[in-house]
Design goal:
Chain lengths: 131, 133
């Protein structure tokens, strides 16, 4: 009965819009990057353990499922970086007006797509050999 | 204006002056990760191959080992502060929440130490001090 009279959490009654979408994506990409951090350390540890260990790890990492994961990681990295800069600018007091925030939101999405496409081109068309 | 009660004032209750530590730490690490993240990404892209020799050479070159260790430490801090907020927002039972946070903190320290040790092993194992590449 007490529970009923309390205010609801924002996600239960706010209208779905671009602001909370971008905010949720920031968290989601952050969580994904935490896993990516573990993967980075796994990779570095294999490197430290010598050529054989590194070859074994490269074989694991070049498995198609890991390639999909790495592509997702790149997407998360690009988005979290761009949107993180947007958050830092907000914290410094810039771009807080609704129009500016909407525009910077779009800029983040565009920049993310651009980075992913550019890096994708370099990686897949450049050497073609990721291992 | 003092809002604390007389008893609270005697007991020294109130702000511990650490209220913004978490918020500020998240921002400092974020600011550091912008250049570090860009450096790491661009460096990897500029590598011709991702084989053992190329990568160990890369780590041993110039400031790369220093920056890589810094990157690992700052990521660990930023990542822990980030997932902590998510856990605090969505995991409600106090016991489960505390255990989750402890596990996450231990995991972050462990992974950071592993990463730093790995970089140091590569950097010091093939050490060629004074012999510039």
């Amino acid at each position: 009965m007490l529970e009923r009279s309390r205010p609801l959490s924002p996600f239960l009654h706010y209208r779905w819009q671009y602001t909370n979408t971008l905010s949720i994506l920031h968290r989601a990409s952050g969580i994904l990057l935490t896993y990516g951090f573990g993967l980075l350390v796994y990779w570095l540890t294999a490197l430290a353990n010598g050529p054989e260990a590194y070859t074994r790890a490269s074989r694991v990492l070049s498995h198609p499922s890991f390639k999909v994961l790495l592509a997702l990681g790149l997407l998360a990295f690009a988005y979290h970086l761009c949107n993180g800069i947007r958050h830092l600018l907000w914290d410094a007091g810039f771009g807080l007006e609704r129009r500016e925030a909407r525009r910077s939101g779009w800029a983040v999405v565009m920049a993310t797509v651009l980075i992913v496409v550019l890096v994708g081109c370099v990686v897949f068309l450049g050497s073609g050999d990721v291992s | 204006m003092r809002r604390s009660s007389a008893l609270g004032r005697v007991l020294g209750n109130g702000s511990a002056k650490h209220g913004v530590d978490h918020w500020w730490g998240q921002r400092i690490t974020a600011m550091a990760l912008v250049p570090l993240g860009v450096w790491f990404g661009v460096s990897l892209l500029l590598l011709p191959r991702f084989d053992y020799a190329t990568l160990t050479q890369w780590i041993n070159h110039g400031w790369n080992a220093v920056l890589l260790v810094t990157l690992i430490l700052v990521i660990a801090q930023h990542s822990y502060l980030g997932v902590r907020v998510v856990v605090e927002d969505y995991v409600h039972p106090p016991g489960v929440r505390m255990v989750t946070l402890l596990v996450l903190q231990f995991a972050h320290v462990l992974i950071a130490v592993m990463g730093v040790l790995a970089v140091l092993k590569v950097a010091l194992g093939n050490a060629t001090f004074g012999d510039s590449v």
